[in-house]
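User: My collaborator sent over this chain with a note saying "see what the structure looks like." That's all I know about it. Can you take a look?
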Amino acid sequence: MDLQLDKLDIAYNQLSGRVPNSFRFNKECTIELTTNRFQGPLPLWSSNITMLYLGDNQFSGPIPPNIGEVMPLLSDLDVADNSLSGSIPLSIGNLTGLMTLVISNNELSGQIPYFRENKQSMYIVDMSNNSLSGTIPTTKSYLSFLQFLVLSSNKLSCEIPSSLKNYTNMFSLDLGDNIFIGKLPAWIGESQTPSSIGNFEWIETLDISMNQISGPIPLSMTCLTFMNHLNLSYNNLSGKIPTTNQFLTLDDPSIYQGNAGLYGRPLSTECPDNGQRKPGGDEEDRDGDGGGKLEKLGFIISIVIFCGVLGSLWDFDHQEVLEDCIFSLC
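Assistant: Without extra context I'll predict from the sequence alone. Here is the result:
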């Protein structure tokens, strides 16, 4: 088949079999094959393709390692919901015009590749529901246009990298169901300089659930005034849940559950210092009781001083009674 096409759109059908590689396309062509039953390896076509939508099919095997070289003009690449395996090709990181990368719900493994340092065009990256491991690449690139980063349900580990604070136009960040450790970064919600756009100032969705994050919830997160969806459940967070600014609206207990050390509204767990006394008395009870004794002791000592001045009126029997009172408080 020797066709020269401007656009190919056969999405949402029941087409099956393999897609031929013999198609020829004109400049800036869009291919839309979403939601069919196509099988076999991902096809590689001419260098004129800018938008390639192959999601929700039955493609298998690896993403071609030279995909970024054969189709260098790609701006949108969607191969989600297939059975693709292997690693993410390094050549994808060299696609300078790539704006949307959706490779979720496959069987991909290995590490996330580095993207070119000068890349500023990325808007959407979705790599969720794979078996990716390692860390989020620490890069000096300033991805100022990245708005959606979805890396949930992988095997990513280590701490949340500080390089994420460069993504100042982020609307949605989903790191849930991984193996991230360390603390929630204090830079979330803080401004880099007084005049700059604050880190994640525009974020609406933040999901860091089902990891191994520890420590308190940074108060800087209360400054995320556009955030309407937060999920911190099933980590090792501790301390009091903030109750100011945007956190007044984040009142669903389920978004905090699974953190044994968290307390305060909207959870039913109260502050440990606000609690109920245990039978027989615990450390708090003893401290509280000791406070009462100290008050009494101070009162009695003041009497001693006063009576010392009036020593001529004080006899031995009264002094003995006073000493008994003091020792009974110790």
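A starting point for your reply to your collaborator: Residues 285 and 310 are 38 Å apart (CA to CA).
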